[in-house]
Amino acid sequence: MGHVVVTELPPDAVRTINLILAGGPFPHPEDGSTYDNGDLLLPRADAGYYRGYTVLVQGAPDDERQRIVRGRDGDLYYTDDGGKTFEAILGAPGP
């Protein structure tokens, strides 16, 4: 898995991270629900460890291709292809 520095993320993804750190409010009712990591693309963890959040892209159709996944310990991951690949986010503020 690769990584991306938070300052290199699209502004919409950074806004989503800020919402996560603030505890919401979130634009989608599914935001904050368990992300099961069924394809094991993220590091192995106990069930319920990961939560998924949709990146609301301003001016784009709501296709949910961009997401932020957060681990219970504050680790963050970004996908821009609907969860086919992930990058660990470096340099984001802590939990």
UniProtKB/TrEMBL annotation:
Coiled coil: none annotated. InterPro entries: N1-like, Ribonuclease/ribotoxin. The keyword Disulfide bond does not apply. Keywords: Hydrolase, Nuclease. One of its GO terms (molecular function) is hydrolase activity. It holds the Pfam family Ribonuclease. This is Guanyl-specific ribonuclease Sa.
